[in-house]
Amino acid sequence: MMKIPFAESYKIKMVESIRRSTRSEREKWIKEAKYNLFNLRSDQVFVDLLTDSGTGAMSDRQWSEMMLGDESYAGASSFYKMQNAITEITGFPYFLPTHQGRAAENVLFSALVKAGDIVPGNSHFDTTKGHIEFRKAKAVDCTIDEAFNTTLDHPFKGNIDIQKLEKVLSENPADKIPMIIITVTCNSSGGQPVSIGNIREVSSMAKKYGVKVIFDAARFAENAYFIKLREKEFARHSIREIVREMFSYADGMTMSSKKDAIVNMGGFIALRDKEIYRQASVFNIMFEGYITYGGMSGRDMNALAQGLYDGTDFDYLESRINQVAFLGNLLKDAGVPVQFPIGGHAVFIDAKRFLPQVPKEQYVAQTLAVELYIEGGVRAVEIGTILADRDPVTRENRYPDLEFVRLAIPRRTYTNNHMHFVAAHIINVWERRNEIKTGYSIRYEAPIMRHFTVELEKI
Ligand SMILES: *Cc1c(COP(=O)(O)O)cnc(C)c1O
């Protein structure tokens, strides 16, 4: 009997050409881009794994919803469509649309976070941490230690360490802790999921200390998929039932809809409490737009509403997560050091184990990411020292425990042939890794979130 291979639960209706390039073209382009992959033009890239944010392919249903968008300033039917989808899927009664995830953070944190506050969580995402630190508050990472060992097999490496959390909660007054942030899935530690068991423990500890729980929910559906596969109690639950259960333990959420709602632009805040909703509404009107559109067009709200249903469909999630695992396993089988188990949206290459000879002061993960681009026109992203920024007080570089090159897979966009192509190039670099001895130095950097605009020089 043949083993039945996996096949996607969709077929392709529209295609977009992508351009190949030569190695010498790429060497010239990346130098002109100051060795910052964000500075490349998209037509200088063949397979673009920079991010899975806003880069997915919308479904025929989402495109047809675009035509039904209501562009009324106030009270558009698109707003109510989005509200119905959010309430049905998350259970939260209140919501505010925003133009993307960091805007949701900006609005909600404007209402809740003040200078001197402490915000514990699991490896806060860079924009989340940015919005906390921008307000002179502090993000405290309470992720379990197992997350920092890339070879260790653990089903829920996004989990919060309850002892670390209790230490923060017991050593600080509750009015200094505006929220605990649970990131599902945990992007910065490798797209790793958080279990319902852990969410329950965090929630009961939060109640004990009188602190709110907010989800950074960009990849909530992928998180639910892993819960279904790995947490026995939920093996027979539907994705939507698991999602409802997850959110039942939270007071609210911020959402980058560019991820699991599979739209090119959009976000929202959803809340259980009317008073917080009212406070946040003021900032939404100031920063984003009136409360029934908040920086989004009616047509985009429609596509987002449909995207929440598309994105919580089991067959879709199975296709998505299998494709990520497919790439990850090609690399793993060739001996390339990757974060294990493979995460939901991306494969994370452990750059310190790939290039142990490159000193950390020369940006190991960035060095590898540039090399992969020159090798095959594959654009990945550094999740390492450059992203970690400088300490806001000492201004010293922060050297994270893990230096990753992240290969993020856009949703419903590339085929497994592209994954083979990417893997082959990475394996070729792996085989000549000893030739790469030096990295880069920084010539220019912004005071916060420097990775987007940093300029580098080859050493
Ligand atoms: C992408 C992301 C954000 C920020 O959302 P944007 O839409 O990029 O502004 C916040 N948190 C997590 C976990 C994310 O993945």
Outline:
The protein has 459 residues and is of the alpha/beta class.
Counting helices, strands and paired strands, the structural category is alpha/beta
Assembly state:
single chain
Quote the average pLDDT: 96
Low-confidence stretches: none
Order of helices and strands: HEHHEHEHEHEHEHHEEHHHEHHEEHEHEE
What does this protein look like?
The chain is α/β, with parallel strands linked by helices. It folds into 2 domains: 23-52 and 314-458, Aspartate Aminotransferase, domain 1 (Alpha-Beta Complex), CATH 3.90.1150; 60-311, Aspartate Aminotransferase, domain 2 (3-Layer(aba) Sandwich). Helices cover 40% and strands 12% of the residues. The protein is built from 16 helices and 14 strands. It has helices at residues 23-32, 60-67, 77-90, 101-112, 126-134, 162-171, 196-209, 220-230, 239-248, 274-287, 298-311, 314-333, 351-354, 364-376, 385-388, 416-431, and strands at residues 47-48, 94-98, 118-121, 138-141, 180-183, 213-216, 252-256, 267-271, 346-350, 378-379, 381-383, 404-408, 440-444, 455-458. The radius of gyration is 21 Å and the shape is globular. The model has no long low-confidence stretch (mean pLDDT 96). The structure holds pyridoxal-5'-phosphate.
Tags for this model:
single chain, 459 residues, alpha/beta, Aspartate Aminotransferase, domain 1, 3-stranded antiparallel beta sheet, binds pyridoxal-5'-phosphate
Helix and strand topology:
Blueprint (H helix, E strand, L loop, with lengths): L22 H10 L14 E2 L11 H8 L9 H14 L3 E5 L2 H12 L5 E4 L4 H9 L3 E4 L20 H10 L8 E4 L12 H14 L3 E4 L3 H11 L8 H10 L3 E5 L10 E5 L2 H14 L10 H14 L2 H20 L12 E5 H4 L9 H13 L1 E2 L1 E3 L1 H4 L15 E5 L7 H16 L8 E5 L10 E4 L1
Parallel strand pairs: 1-10, 3-4, 5-6, 6-7
Antiparallel strand pairs: 2-8, 7-8, 9-12, 11-12, 13-14
Bound molecules: pyridoxal-5'-phosphate.
